[in-house]
Design a protein that fits this description.
Length: 61
């Protein structure tokens, strides 16, 4: 996660424009949502893999 966060920060800073910082309430809500659905990332990846299996079954070759 650190690498991705760093990449996003560098991209944002490279625009030369002021950054928009999200309000604390929005960050807190996002954190609550991640805690409430700990399996969300796994379920999302499972769904993506099912689509890939259906559309391109030979991707792993």
């Amino acid at each position: 996660y650190l690498e991705k966060a760093s990449e996003v920060q560098v991209l944002a800073l490279s625009t030369g424009r002021p950054l928009s910082i999200i309000p604390d309430e929005v960050a807190a809500q996002a954190a609550r949502q991640w805690r409430e659905y700990p399996d969300a990332a796994r379920l999302h990846m499972d769904a993506l893999m099912a689509i890939l299996d259906e559309e391109s079954p030979d991707y792993a070759k």
